[in-house]
């Protein structure tokens, strides 16, 4: 099935970069023909499909690319481009020869079942593929569990449910065992749905398949409820998560406004990135303070959170605080929402002798477990169909997603190289600050040791980037680390398990 590929050639397959005029850079994705010569091609069945044959210009051109950046200056280079997603004129698989599998890994997210459904239905209705199996229970399901036959009838209404009908797990990635299973079962299309850890595992699977010279495509569908995957516009399930998060914020607002000096604290997902907290707060307009991992803050002293809470209670009689789960800590040992709630209660009880009514709401698992809304269902359909088109066209080692509102095929390494973060120098963060009227803690951050001594002094006007990085979350980390002294350290996880 083709000669084995040496490590040097394999590295080059993962870096298909074409340079063009005026600073044009095309980062292409691998293709089966890169390492298996003389593969036959077949006319795309969509040419005879009554639903698609009537659509003009349905097939993408071989030279169509999508720009990563669309806002440029007059003399700036054209920049990085990716291959446009969509059906090709020719395909590299006959329908009867396709034996596809789908696996879901990592945590739950709205839309997982929709993606599964649309891969199955897309393969069946667009390309006539009848053999699709589900891998039960994440990566380890390849070698330790049975497969689940998937047909259009089986998946017909699963998009109305939360979770994943295939089951999921963290870890379990043993590359050799997985590829052995793929080879033994005669699988030639692998669809992997997961976040950055899962996609790192998908990249290893692709590399091993390439080394063995197998005629197998590996496709990733990027999933993270936190919306922290780079390059793509957003991840599926994010709109649904923001919508559900607003219900928790609304409940906190009702509680806060119903009691004297009422405070509602809502903890939302966002271990490393605060997108859900920021978007939900902006959409709600009931939030008085939004705390995210990217923006430092402190509790005590002039310009601190306690002072701001006291000010808002005097002005409005109530307050709603939204906090992302990753605020102020390097690990997940402490429930930061519960910790902040406890500190607020202690401060106003002991220091201010002031009665407050605080309610803490943590809707994390409710948000993860819901079915996707209409917006995400449409998005998941487009994602799944784009993945199927790419696989049938022989592309491999890629993830699919919208780049500037146009779906593209993106090399694995671009998706896993870093995490997307909220840019607190961007217009949207300024809109958040304007909406909540909260102070920009960034401009007044000070070290924990100097807070008491500097109570009567004016805060600094602005910190440099270096100073900000040094001081970011210093106060909260000091307090949280104190709380963690008697706790067991977290178990180390592999890249695959971290997702």
UniProtKB/TrEMBL annotation:
It comes from the Eukaryota. ATP binds at residues 107, 170-171, 195-198. Its cofactor is Mg(2+). Transmembrane segments: none annotated. GO terms for molecular function: 6-phosphofructokinase activity; ATP binding; metal ion binding. Keywords: Allosteric enzyme, ATP-binding, Cytoplasm, Glycolysis, Kinase, Magnesium, Metal-binding, Nucleotide-binding, Transferase. SUPFAM superfamilies: Phosphofructokinase (SSF53784). The active site is at residue 226. Substrate binds at residues 224-226, 269-271, 325, 365-368. Its main location: cytoplasm. Allosterically activated by AMP. It is found in: Cytoplasm. It catalyses: beta-D-fructose 6-phosphate + ATP = beta-D-fructose 1,6-bisphosphate + ADP + H(+). Pathway: Carbohydrate degradation; glycolysis; D-glyceraldehyde 3-phosphate and glycerone phosphate from D-glucose: step 3/4. Pfam families: PFK. Residues 477-499 are annotated as: Disordered. Gene3D superfamilies: 3.40.50.450. One of its GO terms (biological process) is fructose 6-phosphate metabolic process. The record marks 197 as: Important for substrate specificity. Mg(2+) binds at residue 196. Belongs to the phosphofructokinase type A (PFKA) family. PPi-dependent PFK group II subfamily. Atypical ATP-dependent clade 'X' sub-subfamily. PANTHER family: ATP-DEPENDENT 6-PHOSPHOFRUCTOKINASE 1. Homotetramer. Catalyzes the phosphorylation of D-fructose 6-phosphate to fructose 1,6-bisphosphate by ATP, the first committing step of glycolysis. This is ATP-dependent 6-phosphofructokinase. The gene is LOC101259840.
